[in-house]
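Suppose you are handed a protein chain with no further information: no name, no annotation, nothing but its sequence. What can you learn? This example shows the usual starting point.
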Amino acid sequence: LFADMYLAYELLSPAMQQFLEGLTAVHDGGVPYVGAYGSTPPEGGYPRSEHSVITVHPVTGKKVLYVNSGFTSHIKGLRRWESQALLDALFAHIATTPRLHCRVQWEPNTLTLWDNRCTQHHAVWDYQPHSRYGERVSVLGTEPPAGP
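A reasonable first move is to predict its three-dimensional structure. Written in structure tokens, the prediction is:
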């Protein structure tokens, strides 16, 4: 299942787009650990980075909504409850807006390619009794997305 983060940005109201423009989100590798184990991960064991909530794709120049429920822990400068409420709304927008989604129905020899800078993805377990196999190829050469 894929989600178009260009369109996720475009479907926000102009007022919300403007509000999000100057915000920075913390992306924390420990977030999945807490979800899986229900405890705080070991200190320093998982990478943490900061990215603008609205980024600009370095090739297309288009604006992208750059938060995800898997790793985005909070938005800097907001109170914890404000940050959580805003992120919950953005995560719900991404998860429940059908226009953003593209579902690939797996069959033998299926190949999918996507750009992580403007797409979110999630494997759907719909290929039983087959096993899933993947090769990951990462392109080097650009800085992490930055704000406009």
